[in-house]
Amino acid sequence: MKAKNIESGLALLGALVVLVGVTFAAGSAFAAEPAADRVAAVTPSETLAVTIAGARAANAETAADAAAAIARDTVLGLDIQLADRTSKLTVSAD
Question: Which of 28, 43, 44, 55 has its CA 20 to 30 A from that of 14?
Answer without folding.
Answer: 28
